[in-house]
Amino acid sequence: MDAHNNAVASISKRLQKFYLQRQPFRVYHGSTNSTRTSEKNSDNTVDTSRLNHVLGVDKATKTALVEPNVSMDSLLDATRSAGLVPLVVMEFPGITVGGGFSGSAGESSSWRHGPFDSTINWIEIVLPNGEVVCASKSEKSDLFWGAASGFGTVGIVTLLEVQLRDAKGFVELTHYHTASFSDVRKKIQDELANPAVEFLDAIVFSPKSAVVCSGRLVNTIPIGSKPRRYLRRQDPWFYLDVQKRAELAKKPVVDYVPLIDYLFRWDRGGFWVARHAYKYFFTPFNRITRYLLDNYMHARVMYHALHKSRLSDTYIIQDVGVPFDDADGFFNWVDQTFNIYPIWLCPLRLRRDTPDAAHGLHANFADPNYPEFMLNFGIWGPGPTDYQKLVHLNRAIEQKVHELGGNKTLYAQAYYTEEEFWKSYDRPAYDDVREKYHASHLPSVYDKVKVDEDAKRKAMEGSRMPVVLRNVRPFQGLYGVYKAWRGGDYILQTKKTSALTVKPSKRDS
Question: Residue 228 class from Cβ within 10 Å (0-12 exposed, 13-18 middle, 19+ buried)?
């Protein structure tokens, strides 16, 4: 805690200096799993990269005290040593606790527990004037919910208490194949009503083929069964394995997946986005090439390469939630407009349980009339080569989701005009929090997530790649791969070390 407190004091002092001048600042986290880059600049940047430790795991209260730059794999290393696991674990090992809290992250257990921010008990946050305060769901709840999904525009979160639950060794995962979108949507709704289900998502491979993946934690597997693995070089990619086996079977397929393999099942291949890299680089896509190129097919490496190459600027990368009543119509529109497959489906419980949550960007989530569940669509794939057409398609998604009363996850680039953006998000509630806690002079969430054409142009001009090759296939992508390789062992799947103290429960002592 001494090292933590010293780091927080340093951040506080730096923010005080900026606040006296009413100067906006940037936060350097050290890494990113967003579509936006994270750059270090000494002039107006606050470096929080040292805040990457698990400070304690309490077995009695089933909580973990965690700094914001702790990655999901490091957090799981710490909690599993105490026999515990977070209620919601984001799908990529490199996603951080702070990023999940500030960015509305959700996964297959979020239909039960809500987004990751709903599983946080309290936060320590340095306000823009340098004041260090704690906020929870019951004390300073306006600040807590204002910072949740706030993308760092209310202050700098420096510590979080994460809720945990008892861990088990395996996820019993049942795959149900369906032959139409309406069938997959109905099956998801049936599983939502099943109290035994703990994890739930689906993959749509085409209008006539989809698989619902429904899971629960178990400690043992039946005699004669073998664990289904997904994290080793020789293992299949999760979505390919599910597609092949579920489509061939005439009945539900049941697997027993080791817990960590399940939680990070999407890491190899980045869901399925990495498949596009094989096509981009004119490389055969088969078991041999996936085996040989495995180091480069993990999310940490892919994000690094995408940022350095700027190829992410040419992709459609959207996560949007729509009410279940409108899901069939939205799917038909996506199918006709984009024809991008597979599509990830994940039910999310977004409605908050208490009026005290009616603050910040998503104050409407606390409205009792707000839908309890949304169906999230993950739409990811190469866009048109014409940039204006790419913008048009992204804007079409945003407008369609707004029309249906849905919600867009803002980790991806936003193409809204400012007026359109604030029609979809609660500006008065968000501004109230920022005014009260001295953050009004900072850029807003809209300023932070909108596509910045000038920044994209400057990044390309600052590249060391020859001008004639910057946007030429495959040289643009090769530059990103080269930068990922130069990133060294950290990029190739090593993890930051976390300091850990495990507090024994009364029974253990």
Answer: buried
